[in-house]
Amino acid sequence: MPKRTGAPTEKSLVTLLELARMGASYSYSEVSSAKLGEALGLTQQAASRRLIDLESAGFVSRVHSGHSLKVCLTTAGLGAVRSFYGELTDVFEKTRGKLTFAGKVFSGIGKGGYYVGHPEYQKRFDAALGYRPYPGTLNVKLEEDRYIEQLKSLRSMGGIRVEGFMRGKEWFSPLTCFDGVMSGERVTLLLIDVTHYNESVVELISPVFLRGKLGLKDGDLVTFTIDAASLAPAIFPSRPPGSSDGLI
């Protein structure tokens, strides 16, 4: 009779997950200790011991069929995997929620108005975001590493994609948008595929002239919140060969 010992250890969870990958979640699957050991970075003997321990704890059931061993997760084992999955999902969903940033306003190189105000970009922003932005960007220099790390994490969170386009020989870069709010005003953070700035700089657009509406000047500290939840995966097309860079 298997002996139940409560919550699984970290090593047990790793092994249960690997067994699930091998097809042992809902039915008996042939599992060799050598193959399991290779997947877990263990010796064959250590992997065999791990299986025995899991059976003793009530997380797996083992049956011998001829010269082979078949393993299946028990209700307790499957429940442990599901519980772990639920915890991970909760962690990542919270991460994908609302992100707050803070930094100082600064003047950029003066090209934001040209690119954001371009008729084709305006049309694409309207289709993707439901508004035509003021022709310019509000540039914010992030002051703390935690905000820079958050900005990097946005790249894995999908976003609203605006594809690039050609005008003559000029290539206007694709970009990904994340909606948010600053002092009650709608803003959209742009992650531009090709940009002059490093990863400490945020470029924001809005339906309004943010500097004027909020009375902002260079050096002012601003905070804003980005809603990173429930966005579609981003698609990153390649740039056409022989084209010049359209940078915002």
Keywords:
Arc Repressor Mutant, subunit A, 6-stranded antiparallel beta barrel, 3-stranded antiparallel sheet, 34% helix, elongated
Average of pLDDT: 84
Task: Report strand order across the widest sheet.
Answer: 4-5-11-10-9-12
The total number of structural domains is 2
At CATH level 2, the architecture of the largest domain is: Beta Barrel
Description:
The chain has 248 residues and is of the alpha+beta class. It has 8 helices and 13 strands. The protein has helices spanning 10-21, 33-40, 44-56, 75-95, 112-116, 119-129, 145-154, 210-214; strands at 29-30, 60-65, 68-73, 98-106, 138-142, 160-162, 165-167, 170-172, 175-182, 185-192, 201-205, 221-227, 244-246. α2 (33-40) crosses α3 (44-56). Mean pLDDT is 84; it is low at 230-247.
Layout of helices and strands, plus pairs?
Elements: H1 10-21, E1 29-30, H2 33-40, H3 44-56, E2 60-65, E3 68-73, H4 75-95, E4 98-106, H5 112-116, H6 119-129, E5 138-142, H7 145-154, E6 160-162, E7 165-167, E8 170-172, E9 175-182, E10 185-192, E11 201-205, H8 210-214, E12 221-227, E13 244-246
Parallel strand pairs: 8-13
Antiparallel strand pairs: 1-3, 2-3, 4-5, 4-12, 5-11, 6-9, 7-8, 9-10, 9-12, 10-11
Structure in a nutshell:
The chain has 8 helices and 13 strands.
